[in-house]
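Case 655 in the screening queue. Each case pairs one protein sequence with one candidate compound; here the compound is adenosine-5'-diphosphate. For every case the pipeline is the same: read the inputs, emit a complex structure as tokens, and attach any notable structural observations.

Predict complex for case 655.
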Amino acid sequence: MTEENLKVTELEKKLKKKEDELERLRKENESIKRSNLELKEEIFQFKGLVYSSTSLITFLKGPDYIIEFANKPIKEVWGKGYDVEGKSLFDVLPELHSQGIKEYLDQAFYKGEPFHARSLPIEHDKNGEMVRYFFDFSYMPQYNYNREIIGVGVIAQDITNRKRAETELKESEHRYREMIHSSNSLIAILRGPEMIIEIANDAIKEVWGKGANVEGKSLFEVLPEIVDQGMPEIFRTVYETGETVVAQESPIMHLKNGEMVLGYFDFMYQALKDSSGEIEGVSVIANEVTNQALLNRQIKKSEREFRELVNFMPHKISLTDTEGVPVYYNQSWLDFTGKSFDELLSESYLDMVHPDEREFVENEVERCLSTEENLDIEVQIRNKDGNYIWHLAKATPIRDEEGNITSWISSSTEIQKLKEDEKRQEDFLKLVSHELKTPITSIKGYIQLLLASLPDDNRDTEKRLPIKPYLNRVETQVERLIRLLSEMLDLSKIEQNELELKIEKFNLNSHVREILEDLKYSNRNVQLELEEDFSCEVHADKDRIGQVIINFVTNALKYSPDSNRVQLKIFEPEKGHVAVSVKDFGIGINEKEQNQIFKRFYRISGNKDDTYEGFGIGLYLSNEIIERHNGKIFVKSELGKGSEFTFTIPQNHQK
Ligand code: ADP
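Case 655 output:
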């Protein structure tokens, strides 16, 4: 081989080596390029992660903690705009100076110790107002490739909202527990099928009587006595079905001061559900109502007794509301009408009343409802056979503590037999008085004839036989008899609606004067005074008006044993009316009886019958007569001082 050839071979070898070297470098370069690309991708991905993270992230460089990078969420919490890179953290957020943040950063920066904090409160200045935030923080030292610390990385979570919700939850739970414990109601929360007592307030513990330490135990273990009272079944139903069970005045035996006692409770057992709707226990809310329950039982008992009593009575008893609408009828009503309770309530009571009396009954009821006076009427009511039976119906209001009427109670008593007896008596009296009237009137005629035929001056005979005084006495007695008979006849006329007025025109004043003259003639030693404030002609029944005046005056004289003075007055009470009053100074009438005396046969019981003779008819007749004249009678009286009876009538009678 030549030297040249050797050189070429040598050069070729070198070239090959260089070429290999070049190939290796090219490959290396390519791998560097690739890893560079991969690194870029990684950085890109990493940055993307950091930017898109909801965590708050920042890198702070050097001892002045210059913000090298801060993501959007942390910038928003800082609230100092988005252009903060390159500035010191403490220049951007001077409020951090006083909050110990630098110490945490220094710990990471100078000592290389990462620092983690949970629920760290930090206040940020938001336009001059310090707003408190809570963060979970990590401060981590950041290294360069020489493993030297060049800054601090911060990752934080804003947990302000969660913290606030937690606080609110705690507060509401606290309030809820406070409420349970301070409540007067009996409250317990029981968990699981075993009814483990989780919460029991003081009120329920006191009723249980098993001391304060019951939480954590099963209800049935604490209160074995309720097991036999059906309670486990109730709890099980609520626990298994989720149904709410409500019980009122439920009787339960429980321990009180070491003794088993019966108490009454209002209960509500309700299923407790977790957030997914699963039943996890039962809540108990109860109130002890023993006193009220005992009272209610007492009320129910007395109501039952009262009903029994009312049903047992032969009288027909009913209750009406304040408007007079019936709300209750007793058994006697049902038996009499042959109707059911509901039928009676659904009908108007007026339907049971005799058609002729319906208007009268309705008016009377209306009057009593509006004046709040007692009702007292006689009325015919239809029985189950369709016959109308006479009843005495009375009603009186029932009032509450304030005196307001709450209802009316009425009783109707059968008086059919009484009415029939009365009718028979009336018929008999009518017959008797009619039959007696003729003979007695003729007796009176003969007496007057005898008196007239006796000479006035007959002293000799008078001494031996005092015929004239005797005849005078007989005449007075006969007159009384005639008055009685005509009153009796009037009475039966009224009963049979036959009392008719004979209306004529006359001068009332002269009529009164004439009557007084007659009365003076037969009552010699009395003092009858007349005051005429008004004088007029009237259209009225002259005899009947006279009858009323005579009745007033004879009563005034009769009921004044210690006085013989009677004052009459004629006056005009209102335009178109005239009034006559008769005033005495006798025994008077008490207030209660002033309304009663106008009833038929009513006589005041204190007056001894033998002291004041009479039948209790006169005022009844007078009242009827005046009413038929469309007038009114009034009485003013004071016991022991005297009475004044007044009637007023229209000057012109109108039918
Ligand atoms: P009598 O025939 O009983 O007098 P009346 O109907 O005239 O009947 O009167 C009814 C009752 O009223 C009398 O029984 C009496 O108790 C009472 N009375 C009537 N007028 C007077 C009076 N002027 N003073 C006191 N009581 C009277």
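Case 655 observations:
- The two ends are 180 Å apart (CA to CA).
- The mean pLDDT is 89.
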